[in-house]
Amino acid sequence: MIVTRSPYRITLGGGGTDRPDFYEKHGGFIVSMAIDKHIYISLKPDSLEKEIKVRYLNTEVVDNLDELKHDRAREALRLHSLDKSIEVNSCGDVPGQTGLGSSGSYLVGLLNAIRHFKKEYCSTEDLAEEACKIEIDILNLPVGKQDQYISAFGGLKILDISKGGKVQVKDVNISHKNLSELTNNLHIYFLKKKRNASNILAKQHSDLKGNEERLLKIKEMGYETLDILEKGNFDDYGLMLDDYWNLKKQFSSDMSFSLADKIYQELKERFKILGGKIIGAGGGGFLMIYANKNHSEIEKFMYQNSITRLNYNTDHSGSKILF
Questions:
Q1: Model confidence, pTM
Q2: CA atoms of 254 and 291, how far apart (whole Å)
Q3: What phi, psi does 276 have (nearest 5°)?
Q4: Environment class of residue 177 by beta-carbon count within 10 Å: exposed (0-12), middle (13-18) or buried (19+)?
Q5: Over the stretch 85-94, which tens digit does the pLDDT of each residue have?
């Protein structure tokens, strides 16, 4: 049995510029952080039965790979000619479809397991690109390259994407002390609402012309994010998040919802948070806020509203083999 552990992520800047429909025209620029919340994948051969078994929120036992409904598992197994007598199981630290890049992390973890099982080792970049190939080229999903790369590499990274799709991965130049201050000020809260990111992204794609100017602005914000983080001007980042929130809500009516808007406005008025955003494509999942004071009061207020804080740190390992 092979067991992998792959991190989820939060996007700090440039979200959405990692999609082909944007970077092929303008290039993409993302600042992303892997967090120590993970998805675990186990893969093992079955010497007694020929069926393919894939267990996630559902359980599938099929005789033929084409019958497998889990599209990412199906295409990962197909790509490596594992079409019988194989079992895949997964579980995660946070629910799926909540904006933390779980689908990309799942695919990276599964491909990492498959390659170790077959003793076909590859570089971290090749692992991420293989996951991108499956999601973007084979499945034609309206996703970008951030989730796969940050899950494979881990850490706090810059993802600089050329028009040809080449991703340069660089470290953000930030001290351990400043990184701790940043994560302490960035609260993440679970809004208990799941959504299908692909559906939301597909709607945004249908209005690509209208959103292109907004994405160009978001790319500029990505550069500003990097500059702010490396200089340690974190309150400036909090203020920029408020501008980002208002800009993202212009993409579509699915970006936000009434609970998130209500909570966000109350946090600004009562506790003077500087900014925040819904993590990921929008429509639910996790709310990230930047607060430089009133930390315990904010957490108490959210608890009274039955909203749970996600405690996290940075994951520096990326996708790894546990055993």
A1: 0.92
A2: 25
A3: 180, 180
A4: exposed
A5: 999 999 999 9
